[in-house]
Write a structure and sequence with these properties.
This protein is an all-beta fold and about 150 residues long. The chain has strands at about 30-35, 45-50, 55-60, 65-70, 70, 75-80, 85-90, 90-95, 100-105, 125, 130-135. Helix content is about 0%, strand content about 35%.
């Protein structure tokens, strides 16, 4: 399946009017409690609905936390949280389970195609209750908002 420009997130927001910024500044958005830190299994991802968005949350063996969009722009599926964690050149990465495209977890940039990137979100470990929190801005296009209809 081929993606169309309106479905692809790019690093250059001037090229496509529907492009999504790859990171939400930490001072924007609101912090949303996702789960307890011990509930996150190292090197495994989980998907959380945060502000109507599907966010893939990862914890590395070193204890670092990362949050990116769960939407894979190459397969048009919400699968990034089921990806394989790894590293390239010291950068923490996730490989999509669909076509194995690899993304830098710090920036969201696809290593094979730097023009494509996953939106990244601020994430923090709140010492009160040892909770993981993610901040999102509600300005992502609808194709990046995952359906929650299975919960209705």
């Amino acid at each position: 399946m081929t993606t169309t420009p309106d479905m692809t997130i790019t690093r250059d927001t001037a090229v496509l009017p529907t492009a999504v910024p790859t990171a939400v500044p930490a001072d924007r958005g609101r912090w949303v409690d996702v789960c307890s830190y011990p509930d996150l299994i190292p090197e495994r991802g989980v998907c959380a609905m945060v502000g109507g968005l599907q966010v893939a949350v990862f914890r590395t063996f070193e204890g670092e936390l990362f949050a990116v969009s769960n939407f894979d722009p190459f397969s048009n599926a919400y699968v990034i949280s089921r990806g394989i964690l790894g590293s390239r050149g010291g950068a923490p990465t996730v490989a999509s389970p669909m076509f194995k495209d690899v993304f830098d977890l710090r920036t969201g940039v696809c290593l094979a195609d730097p023009e494509v990137a996953l939106p990244t979100f601020p994430i923090r470990r709140n010492p009160v209750g040892d909770r993981v929190e993610v901040a999102v801005e509600g300005a992502l296009p609808d194709e990046h908002r995952g359906s929650d209809e299975h919960r209705e």
